[in-house]
């Protein structure tokens, strides 16, 4: 169904992709030939009609015919004036385009937030109001309020879905737990509701509402579409520098300081629980999954064993082994130190072949700063103050923010983080670290499916990635 004049364009499609500079003039010649044929065809038709007895050309036909290009008129050769091909743009041009795109995005967002008459569009939840708690008679009532968009993540007893509010068309994340499957997970979700209801911080995931039916619990939170911070750092096209790491670590420490000021401890800081709000370069960090968090009292130890094995603080492992009586909020700063180490060096220094070996390395605090990395001395010193076996010697969030490495006036380090092997910069190591984590999830997912079969063993092994409460 293509018109006849499109044949030369389709025939040389590959040439157009591979040699645009040579192809553009030839395309112009093809189009010129098309116009010539159209003119001649129109002229021949007009002359043929003129030879008919009694034919008289109308003024409209004469005007239309005269508007066609005449091939006999002189035309400048296209080969002498090829279309200039832009090779690159200056930094100023790119900055101007970026500012223009951001202004346009802000204008589009403002237009989307306004209704047809220019008034603010109705929102599903009051952003400054209290968290809504709603009891429903059945699950279909929840799905009358929201529509299922896609499944973001799935655990053994719960799943996280992207949902859309049917009235306002806003997008949210909904964490859904089947109450019939596990009592412990219900406690986790109720605790997460209590934590998020008390926390209002730009870098902690925001809870808007909780719904309960006889069968399920639903937590509706803001939607973070940017994925994990670690995956972004290991895969995007930007230069991966120490300045980037410093910025992200500062943000995480400030969020932890806020949590501790509210007498809340996270207890499960790890790469999977540090997300980005969206896919833009200016995306905000969002700390998620507060199912293991709890409120604490000063000078009163916590005793519940929880977290993820490779990221446990030494006092958690010792408490599990009965060597000490409990632990305090300092376990979060151990998690911050590990996150900083992984971002700077691209691997977890305590990861071993088996869980026991990993726990032994953690309790003995067997780690060191690797050689051959161009990480600054102040960054190494910062990590050393956090990955301490004795929680009393570990930096608090307040002390960490005052360290010279996080000083806003510290000397910049814009260069890429490198190792002694030029073919394996830290960005490549971080990509391999992320790939190994994904592979581990796939293997454990298959193990869980087998463990759920009554013939294949103890179903408790399905949660082998977390230390249960």
UniProtKB/TrEMBL annotation:
InterPro entries: Aur-like (IPR030616), Kinase-like_dom_sf (IPR011009), Prot_kinase_dom (IPR000719), Protein_kinase_ATP_BS (IPR017441), Ser/Thr_kinase_AS (IPR008271). Gene3D superfamilies: Transferase(Phosphotransferase) domain 1 (1.10.510.10). The active site is at 268 (proton acceptor). ATP binds at residues 175, 272-273, 289. One of its GO terms (molecular function) is protein serine/threonine kinase activity. Residues 101-114 have a biased composition (Low complexity). Residues 146-406 form the Protein kinase domain. Pfam families: Pkinase (PF00069). Residues 38-125, 444-469 are annotated as: Disordered. There is a cross-link at residue 270 (Glycyl lysine isopeptide (Lys-Gly) (interchain with G-Cter in SUMO2)). The keyword Repeat does not apply. Keywords: ATP-binding, Kinase, Nucleotide-binding, Serine/threonine-protein kinase, Transferase. Residues 89-100, 455-469 have a biased composition (Basic and acidic residues). It comes from the Eukaryota. PANTHER family: SERINE/THREONINE-PROTEIN KINASE IAL-RELATED (PTHR24350). Belongs to the protein kinase superfamily. This is Protein kinase domain-containing protein. The lineage of its organism: Eukaryota, Haptista, Haptophyta, Prymnesiophyceae, Prymnesiales.
């Amino acid at each position: 169904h293509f018109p006849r004049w499109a044949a030369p364009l389709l025939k040389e499609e590959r040439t157009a992709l591979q040699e645009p500079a040579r192809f553009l003039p030839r395309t112009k010649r093809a189009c010129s030939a098309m116009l010539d044929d159209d003119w001649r065809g129109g002229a021949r038709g007009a002359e043929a009609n003129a030879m008919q007895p009694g034919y008289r050309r109308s003024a409209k036909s004469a005007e239309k015919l005269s508007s066609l290009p005449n091939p006999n008129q002189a035309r400048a050769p296209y080969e002498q004036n090829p279309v200039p091909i832009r090779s690159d743009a200056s930094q100023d041009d790119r900055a101007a385009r970026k500012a223009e795109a951001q202004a346009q995005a802000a204008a589009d967002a403002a237009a989307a937030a306004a209704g047809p008459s220019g008034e603010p569009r109705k929102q599903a939840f009051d952003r400054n109001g209290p968290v809504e708690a709603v009891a429903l008679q059945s699950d279909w009532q929840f799905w009358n309020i929201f529509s299922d968009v896609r499944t973001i993540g799935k655990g053994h007893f719960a799943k996280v879905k992207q949902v859309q509010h049917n009235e306002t068309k806003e997008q949210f994340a909904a964490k859904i737990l089947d109450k019939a499957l596990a009592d412990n997970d219900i406690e986790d979700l109720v605790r997460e509701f209590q934590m998020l209801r008390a926390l209002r911080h730009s870098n902690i995931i925001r809870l808007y509402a909780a719904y309960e039916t006889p069968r399920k619990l639903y937590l509706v939170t803001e939607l973070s579409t940017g994925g994990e911070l670690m995956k972004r750092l290991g895969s995007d096209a930007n230069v991966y520098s120490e300045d980037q790491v410093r910025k992200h670590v500062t943000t995480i420490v400030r969020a932890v300081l806020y949590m501790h000021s509210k007498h809340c401890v996270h207890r499960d800081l790890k790469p999977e629980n540090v997300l980005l709000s969206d896919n833009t370069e200016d995306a905000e960090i969002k700390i998620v999954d507060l199912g293991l968090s709890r409120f604490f009292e000063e000078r009163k130890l916590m005793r519940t064993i929880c977290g993820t094995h490779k990221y446990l603080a030494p006092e958690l492992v010792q408490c599990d082994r009965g060597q000490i009586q409990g632990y305090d909020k300092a376990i979060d700063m151990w998690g911050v130190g590990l996150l900083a180490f992984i971002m700077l060096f691209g691997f977890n220094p305590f990861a071993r072949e088996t869980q026991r070996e990993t726990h032994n390395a953690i309790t003995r605090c067997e780690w060191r700063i690797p050689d051959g990395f161009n990480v600054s001395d102040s960054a190494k010193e910062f990590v050393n103050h956090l990955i301490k076996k004795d929680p009393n010697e570990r930096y608090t969030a307040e002390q960490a923010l005052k360290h010279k490495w996080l000083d806003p006036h510290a000397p910049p380090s814009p260069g890429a983080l490198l190792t002694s092997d030029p073919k394996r910069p830290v960005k490549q190591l971080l990509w391999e670290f992320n790939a190994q984590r994904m592979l581990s999830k796939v293997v454990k997912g298959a193990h869980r499916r087998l463990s759920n079969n009554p013939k294949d063993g103890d179903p408790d092994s399905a949660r082998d990635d977390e230390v249960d409460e």
